[in-house]
UniProtKB/TrEMBL annotation:
One Pfam family matching this protein: adh_short
One of the record's GO molecular function terms: oxidoreductase activity
Gene Ontology CC: one annotated term: cytoplasm
Highest taxon in the source lineage: Eukaryota
Protein name stated in the entry: GSFK dehydrogenase
Organism listed in the record: Origma solitaria
InterPro entries, alphabetized: Fungal_SecMetab_SDRs (IPR051468), NAD(P)-bd_dom_sf (IPR036291), SDR_fam (IPR002347)
Protein family according to the UniProt entry: Belongs to the short-chain dehydrogenases/reductases (SDR) family.
Length: 224
């Protein structure tokens, strides 16, 4: 279905305080029929970096800010409980795993710490988010008629990157970012696994490459 027909009852976006995440929120708020609930998560909602998000929330009562560290399983569980309380009996329609990190280093400078930290945020984060929010996604799917999979029913959207493509060496000369590339290649496989495991529950799972976007993470090269 095209964007005009998209009807999302509730959505959660991680890494929502800036860049792509903030852009996605603004898009949802501008929809002809905006979601009843928009959950915006970031590590520290009180930080200066979340000021724009706070301004947005003060204007839109359907926008709820929740503190969430995607590298921390306890933080994820707490956030899922909070979202569940807000939703009452209804489920979560759309989970957008957007939070990501990159350490701009050459291959020879990469360390175990770099790889571990990048994987924890970019790959383990979306895995744990999927697990924690599965009951709410299932609930949304059950409450939506029809057998097809769609973003209007229940979906997990993992924001990936062409940097994780094995076939296309996009941007190699500008940024080797090996830990990042590996984490995104792994995220693509995770998405495939989620789609196979959660299809029976009526949950759509896809990985998206957002294209060249000028954000804090992307910087001048627009790497996302």
């Amino acid at each position: 279905s095209n964007m005009g027909e998209l009807s999302v009852r509730s959505v959660l976006v991680t890494g929502a305080n800036r860049g792509l995440g903030l852009g996605l929120l603004q898009h949802f708020l501008r929809m002809p029929k905006p979601p009843q609930w928009i959950f915006a998560t970031c590590r520290d909602p009180k930080a200066q970096r979340a000021q724009e998000l706070q301004n947005l929330a003060s204007k839109h009562p359907n926008l709820v800010i929740i503190a969430l560290e995607v590298a921390n399983p306890a933080s994820i569980k707490a956030a899922a409980a909070k979202v569940g309380e807000h939703l009452g009996g209804s489920g979560l329609t759309l989970l957008i795993n957007n939070a990501g990190m990159v350490k701009p280093k050459m291959l020879n400078e990469e360390t175990l710490e770099d790889l571990t930290e990048t994987y924890t945020t970019n790959t383990a984060g979306p895995l744990l988010m999927g697990q924690a929010f599965l009951p709410l996604l299932k609930k949304a799917a059950q409450g939506s008629p029809g057998s097809g999979l769609s973003c209007s029913k229940a979906a997990i959207i993992n924001i990936s990157s062409i940097g994780g493509s094995i076939a296309c060496p996009f941007g190699w000369d500008q940024m080797q970012v090996v830990s990042y590339r590996c984490s995104k290649a792994a995220l693509n496989m995770l998405t495939k696994c989620q789609s196979l495991a959660y299809r029976a529950n009526g949950i759509l799972c896809v990985a998206l490459h957002p294209g060249w976007v000028q954000t804090d993470l992307g910087g001048a090269t627009g790497y996302t």
